[in-house]
């Protein structure tokens, strides 16, 4: 296997557009940062698109250039794994609105010559998918063998067969939902308000002096991170254990281990993510309602597709609980779409899909190989 197959190729393309947006208007040009792994076969039938979650990026299986850490899904994508560059041509693109090279609030507005900031247009999950389709057009890929994603990535994978029913053959949706609940929206609003309350936010115009609203973004990340975990997992890992210092030294420092952990998560996040992008992407997730996009009936979203579906949920995921996946399965059944569904056991809550999950890998591997055997 070549180095390109193992480590991926980092790419950046500027497409002329225009990209028509759900909110009205259009974006042009459209910048997309992406990585590819493996080789496209002769008939261009082995392409798999990986869709990332809210704070993810295109570095799905290669070293992150800012953090030096391994890719965020090296447990699923790589040699000998379910999504394998020896068998598949793998594409992962940074979503529209993000901050790792694709068009977003930090991108230079060609009209003004300065970053868009809050002038960047409001975007939706379907807009992200349309941008990905533009990338596939650029790569000469008419149809995906499969699209795979978890969490917000799962929202994109659901939107793919609904938006481009003829362009995808298989869909893997992990720990996701067809629309945000009021509770989901509430948690996101807490994070957004934390960012906008930071004095350094200044209406989003903070790029020129390099003083971003880091404190607000850190709090937003801390609040969101709690929703990615489970109570059982937090109790097992931290409980009510105090830091290794004088337990009688009470105050507002990080007395408990869980406090220190969350603060570390928040501060490390500000080194690699943009606050305005966080505002835009969380809003896109909150707007997502696949049924509403198709006349109020979720089954309508899948009536035109001939794709095969595989859905997985985790029993301790309270952010997108199993009931959300079951609702999607029922809609797929009503639409006559072939679907398999499994609820997996894990103590790790929503984040389980990013961690060691042998049973998840076994199911996805079997699902993909069944499609290859056709």
TrEMBL record:
Alphabetically ordered keywords of this record: Acyltransferase, Amino-acid biosynthesis, Cytoplasm, Methionine biosynthesis, Transferase
GO terms (BP aspect): homoserine metabolic process; methionine biosynthetic process
Broad enzyme group: transferase
Residue ranges of domain AB hydrolase-1 in the record: 46-356
Molecular-function GO term, any one: homoserine O-acetyltransferase activity
Catalytically driven reaction(s): L-homoserine + acetyl-CoA = O-acetyl-L-homoserine + CoA
Major site of localization recorded for this protein: cytoplasm
Residue intervals passing through the bilayer: none
Pfam families: Abhydrolase_1 (PF00561)
Residue numbers binding substrate: 221, 351
Family: Belongs to the AB hydrolase superfamily. MetX family.
Role this protein plays: Transfers an acetyl group from acetyl-CoA to L-homoserine, forming acetyl-L-homoserine.
PANTHER family, A to Z: HOMOSERINE O-ACETYLTRANSFERASE
Protein name: Homoserine O-acetyltransferase
